Amino acid sequence: xxxxxxxxxxxxxxxxxxxxxMLQNYCSEIEVIGEAASGPEGKAKIQELKPHVVFLxxxxxxxxxxxxxxxxxxxxFCVVFLTAYSEHGITAVKAGxxxxxxxxxMLSELQGAIRKVVQHYESKQPVLxxxxxxxxxxxxxxxxxxxxxVDFKDIIWLExxxxxxxxxLNGQKKIVASKTLKExxxxxxxxxxxxxxxxxxxxxxxxxEYSNNEGGELILSDGTHVQVSKARIQDxxxxxxxxxxxxx
Length: 248
Description:
Elements: E1 4-9, H1 13-26, E2 30-36, H2 39-49, E3 53-57, H3 65-70, E4 78-83, H4 89-94, E5 99-102, H5 107-122, E6 127-128, E7 137-143, E8 146-151, E9 155-161, E10 164-169, E11 173-177, H6 181-187, E12 193-197, E13 200-203, E14 207-211, E15 217-220, E16 225-227, H7 233-241
Parallel strand pairs: 1-2, 1-3, 3-4, 4-5
Antiparallel strand pairs: 6-7, 7-8, 9-10, 9-13, 10-11, 12-13, 14-15, 15-16
């Protein structure tokens, strides 16, 4: 079984102990590797230990959980907020939390949060279909209703939408995925996908036409017009020269 490392950040010792005990006794996927009693201490622990998931109390003196996260750039871990106050829910979602749990913790809700953490990391890895379809590279796309397996060859382009990504597929199908465009860029093969704009990642095999309108614009096989950022025009020009692109 894959183990995911965790750090607990909470100013209340009893609360930290309770969270650690529940994780150790009932959540075998999680290994607690560190604890902290304040925001600054927690930030240092995260930088030192690089956990997969942080269980973070919101209401802490001096620096609360939201303030601590604001000081961490290029965040590459999941956050599960812990709080006794229900009014923080919307702010927690905006902060990119994978879940938001009320104290005292309920085991079923904690285990639900762990399932989301596991799914998050598993979805980062491309998945192959069973033998017989092994030539198709499948990507697991997590979304609000569960997940969908998609052959990356069917992805025409991807559009950033805050902490979500819109995927536009063959057959006029669209999926809203619960991961960032940056995460998809790391998963999808660089030989087929190119980031032409901070908000757009395209499958080069669906490029139909290039226009220099407004600096640079691609027309994809489904008729979509996607802007190429000025900073990426030269890189894209050099990249596309290495390809034999067949419009579909």
